[in-house]
Amino acid sequence: xxxxxxxxxxxxxxxxxxxxxxxxxxxxxxxxxxxxxxxxxxxxxxxxxxxxxxxxxxxxxxxxxxxxxxxxxxxxxxxxxxxxxxxxxxxxxxxxxxxxxxxxxxxxxxxxxxxxxxxxxxxxxxxxxxxxxxxxxxxxxxxxxxxxxxxxxxxxxxxxxxxxxxxxxxxxxxxxxxxxxxxxxxxxxxxxxxxxxxxxxxxxxxxxxxxxxxxxxxxxxxxxxxxxxxxxxxxxxxxxxxxxxxxxxxxxxxxxxxxxxxxxxxxxxxxxxxxxxxxxxxxxxxxxxxxxxxxxxxxxxxxxxxxxxxxxxxxxxxxxxxxxxx
Length: 326
Ligand code: UT7
Fold this sequence. Notes:
The chain has 10 helices and 15 strands. By secondary structure, the protein is α+β, with helices and mostly antiparallel strands. Strand 14 and strand 15 form a beta hairpin. The model has no long low-confidence stretch (mean pLDDT 97). Residues 36, 40, 44-45, 120, 159-160, 163, 197, 218-219, 221-222, 225, 255-256, 259, 283, 285, 314 line the site of oxa(dethia)-CoA.
């Protein structure tokens, strides 16, 4: 018999090394002749620091560390997991998937493992897929991981993007349950907008073909993000049969505090319900939402029974939302 619902039963996260503050980053960029400042970065984005993985640290290592912490929080072992989904745009390799490498590191083969590529919406995409698979009975306990080493795809000569991103990983354990759980999720994409945020390169005949670094039209992304984050929030809350006032915590993708606050204002969600970690983590793409969720659970803000609205938005163009009762 299949359970009707899935529930988040544990969370974990991992950030590589010591944080790099804006002043330190500005010093490093100045050595390349690139001018920026703590003041510009904080005023335009709210970012104060980010973590940058050492060159030999891989996406799967970050994801494995976050997964181990989520399993410990859930009181489960790797052998209890029959599905691993990793959201990432910075996998270790072209293949095998980062999910397979994490499964190997955790030491329990046999379950399904695959990656999801939806850039900064990747975690909500992955969570929605895992929820569907659990509700159909295809899996019982899933690790859903967002892990990124975005520092590897940044053009460190482009001050308009390189100050915005960081590395890290977050994970949740999603378990079959008779009680909800994930109440609703909604996913969207508009491929016609692929040009505003992309890394338009790939490996072909053994060499990188195209441009291997992230490019972004920041203002176009900003405007679209605020619009779609509002609409998909309303959609998912309605799908769950709730009101916006029932939302206890809003955890949007952590790209820019101005986007988060503008979205919160449009939804009439006060700032003290918005979980903000972009100041500490910068934009960690698919890792940003599970990282923020883990922070808010561990510091005691998010408690059992709370309604948590998680949202992703990013390259593709993609966006989506998941509403969960914790
Ligand atoms: O995860 C995917 C989702 N991504 C996002 O959500 C990002 C969305 N976009 C944004 O967050 C903002 O558009 C940015 C933070 C990227 C940029 O903020 P903005 O207020 O839109 O600034 P801008 O791009 O219009 O640039 C304003 C000025 C320009 O100088 P001029 O032309 O006015 O002289 C830039 O050259 O700021 C300059 N600038 C910088 N100055 C110092 C751009 N980057 C920097 C920098 N330091 N790092």
